[in-house]
């Protein structure tokens, strides 16, 4: 097996350009921007859980625009069908053969807007795409474009007409984050600047898709010390034996956290993972994968408790020196 090429200064410069470009549109949210970029580099998917109107869609559009990749938005509703996402085979009378009509999933950046407003059957249409970068239509399997990333949104304060995401779907997301309200000064600037039109429309690509694929390949070359692996596994095992947690972090979740830490190191310009990479990603990478022992009637309350539990476990486990 050929070892991955080391990360070059050109690749690191591409990360900076990408983050700086998004920051011109998504103001005052460097942590959210870094989370989105790290998710992209790790070949993962991002769940944005927040109230409407705080920039979730803008973040997805800005990321696609800065990449120069294709962007599709799917508005999830109760009557949405799986074929509306992946596509359908249509019989061509003239050619006497079936022709694939591709759905919006065939894009580099896919915004699954209000993902919890559609039925579990339709939600499940994303599982294969998010796990294997492919979709099955009739008897054929079709590869998706690369890079490929799903950014899904849901409103934690909304209950009527929603379908909670099952554990299998939540486990496909590398991270779950929220944006929150911008600071007062930044929001004032946004109000003034909006008079000039949509800022995303003015955003030009700063990296190409080939550079992104190179960065994604480079993640594999980031060194993860054995002591840090043991540290991460101790935290994962703690979630599996906790009295307040019915189902702890899965093996898929542990592997996703590992890769996210590597991507975080790359984004920071390092070829090795440090404890802060692992600790800083514990809550966004692990909390949404927990099934808590207590029953909740509020998504926001369940999220707060899950994040608190992960933070408490991380605080208890000694960091390797």
Description of the molecule:
With 321 residues, the protein is an alpha/beta fold. It folds into two domains: 6-221, P-loop containing nucleotide triphosphate hydrolases (Rossmann fold), CATH 3.40.50; 222-321, Magnesium chelatase subunit I, C-Terminal domain (Helicase, Ruva Protein, domain 3, Orthogonal Bundle), CATH 1.10.8. 44% of the residues lie in helices and 15% in strands. The strands form four sheets. The protein has a five-stranded parallel beta sheet with strand order 2-5-8-1-9. A two-stranded antiparallel sheet has the order 3-4. The longest helix is centred in the last third of the chain and has 18 residues, at 299-316. Residues 1-5 have low confidence and may be disordered.
């Amino acid at each position: 097996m050929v070892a991955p090429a080391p990360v070059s200064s050109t690749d690191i410069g591409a990360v900076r350009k990408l983050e700086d470009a998004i920051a011109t549109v998504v103001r005052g949210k460097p942590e959210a921007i870094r989370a989105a970029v790290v998710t992209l580099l790790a070949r993962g998917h991002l769940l944005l859980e927040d109230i409407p109107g705080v920039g979730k869609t803008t973040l997805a559009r800005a990321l696609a625009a800065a990449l120069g990749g294709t962007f599709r938005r799917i508005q999830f509703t109760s009557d949405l069908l799986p074929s509306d996402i992946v596509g359908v085979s249509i019989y061509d009378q003239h050619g006497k053969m079936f022709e694939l009509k591709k759905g919006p999933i065939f894009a580099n950046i896919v915004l699954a807007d209000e993902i919890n407003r559609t039925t579990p059957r339709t939600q499940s249409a994303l599982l294969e795409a998010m796990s294997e970068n492919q979709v099955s239509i009739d008897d054929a399997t079709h590869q998706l474009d690369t890079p490929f990333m799903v950014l899904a949104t849901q409103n934690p304060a909304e209950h009527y007409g929603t379908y909670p995401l099952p554990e299998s779907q939540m486990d496909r997301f590398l991270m779950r984050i929220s944006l929150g309200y911008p600071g007062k000064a930044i929001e004032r600037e946004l109000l003034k600047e909006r008079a000039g039109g949509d800022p995303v429309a003015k955003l030009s690509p700063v990296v190409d898709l080939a550079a992104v694929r190179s960065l994604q390949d480079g993640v594999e070359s980031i060194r993860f010390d054995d002591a840090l692996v043991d540290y991460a596994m101790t935290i994962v095992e703690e979630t599996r034996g906790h009295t307040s947690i019915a189902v702890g972090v899965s093996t898929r979740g542990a592997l996703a956290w590992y890769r996210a830490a590597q991507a975080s190191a790359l984004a920071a310009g390092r070829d090795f993972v440090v404890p802060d990479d692992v600790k800083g990603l514990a809550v966004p990478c692990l909390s949404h994968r927990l099934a808590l022992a207590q029953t909740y009637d509020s998504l926001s309350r369940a999220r707060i408790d899950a994040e608190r539990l992960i933070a408490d476990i991380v605080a208890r486990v000694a960091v390797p020196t």
